[in-house]
Write a structure and sequence with these properties.
mainly alpha, single chain, about 130 residues
Length: about 130
């Protein structure tokens, strides 16, 4: 039951994982478990998630460099708090899409279109009987 609560709290940015960590460590201390090892594991997990895994996943899916994703989250948090953290990466991703859509390609660059309009261009030929 405690794991489910921690998993749900993980979706709340900034304070969710802290609340989950306090609950887990408190439960470990009250049950005379190895709460120091629990705390160490949580710290290692957060470091991995915040500085290694999450920026790479966001960078791959949104095609944003991981350092830009980290910088965006830090600036968003400093400027707008929790709302800034929520909106910073989507805002940068939207700006990137707008820039790539309207920016002209460099002189002499070959532009390859992702959208093919005609079946002949895709190599599909019609069969007539």
């Amino acid at each position: 039951m405690l794991g489910v609560l921690a998993g749900i709290l993980e979706f709340i940015p900034v304070v969710g994982w802290m609340t989950a960590a306090v609950i887990i460590v408190t439960a470990g201390a009250l049950s005379h478990s190895h709460w120091i090892w629990m705390l160490a594991l949580l710290v290692v997990w957060r470091i991995l998630m915040d500085y290694a895994i999450a920026p790479r996943v966001m960078g791959h899916e949104l095609e944003i460099h991981p350092l830009l994703a980290i910088f965006t989250l830090m600036v968003g948090g400093a400027v707008g708090g929790i709302v800034g953290i929520y909106l910073s990466v989507p805002l940068v991703a939207a700006l990137r899409v707008i820039y790539r859509r309207f920016a002209s390609p460099p002189v002499g660059a070959t532009v390859v279109s992702d959208i093919v309009d005609s079946p002949e261009a895709r190599g599909v030929t019609s069969v007539r009987a």
